[in-house]
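B., you asked whether I could sanity-check this one before it goes into the benchmark set. Here's the sequence:
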Amino acid sequence: MKVLSPRPDLWTLDPDLLHLNHGSYGAVPRRTQEVLAALRAETEANPMRWFRSVAGRLATSRLELAAFLQTDPAGFALVANASAGVTAALATIPIPAGSRIVLTNHAYGAVLYAAQRFARANQAEVVVVDVPLEADDDSVVARIEAALDDRTAALIVDQISSATAMVFPIRRLAELCRSRGIPSIVDGAHAPALLDAPAEDGADFWTGNFHKWPAAPRATAGFVVAEKWRTATLPLIVSWSEHDERLPERFDMQGTYDYAPWIAASESLRVLAELEWPRRRSELSAMIDEGARVVAKALGTSVAEVARPAATMRLVELPFDGIPSPEAGEAFKTKVSQELKAEITLTAFDTRVFIRLSAHAYNSPDDYQRLADLLPPLV
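And here's what the prediction gave me:
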């Protein structure tokens, strides 16, 4: 079978740069940008007419996005990002005084902060479970199960960890929580387009970003709520849809908001379809495997041995002595950007520092070889 060719022509990315961090902010295809620009131009041509039309357009887009996730559209709402979805879930569940919100040490920083805020407000506590990178599914489930007890108000768990690109056994964890009567909240920020039907694993709440791997406009994310919680789940902004009895519509109209990204998002799904995404994702996985090995060899380090790595992300260890401060980490990324013309991101786990490399349809094997050639002297 012929290998699919890279398609940088579908994007407007600067060709003089190495774009190796799709996982953070994504990249919007040219066609979707054009749809987005046309929608915003229409908005400014007649704001009154635009806002009269928004509800119907949102409903159409929402149904397309729910179909892409293969989830029940009656329980699927649109939110700005996965952090907003997690926050809405925490605002819905009861968190009694003295209870515990359980997460793992792979949790996204903003999600951990949300758990801490709700714990403080309710005189509860946050419990962080240590899960090693190399932990298999059985070990992951056993470690989390050991932290659950009759005081547990909720389990918040990554589907694909942003920090470590590790895939968690969500179906098993959701079943475990259900058997204990514990609400489960899944941070699926990276899951759309990397996992098939990511929201169908039985969690009470699931949320995921469309601006990452589906390459939709930023500030577009999905929020899936199990039927038992739909009546109680409210948007974070109190607006005119506050008393709508149906969950999706209740989240649709959040005042004078820029709804163009939510409406344009379905165009990116059509781009993915034309890219033969399931096949391309498999090829990208093989490419990032080899690319990560090339970069690690050049640095004299190794690729992290993650038990279940995400399809299109890998961690390459950096030969740093200790964890750099956030300021030092940002300075290093800026130096790589300015001097090497490469966009990367760093992540830390335990006492190790990694480059988290990404692969999307605009990348080629040459990108990782170029990084391998350029990076060692700077490190």
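One thing to flag: The mean pLDDT is 95. Otherwise nothing jumped out at me.
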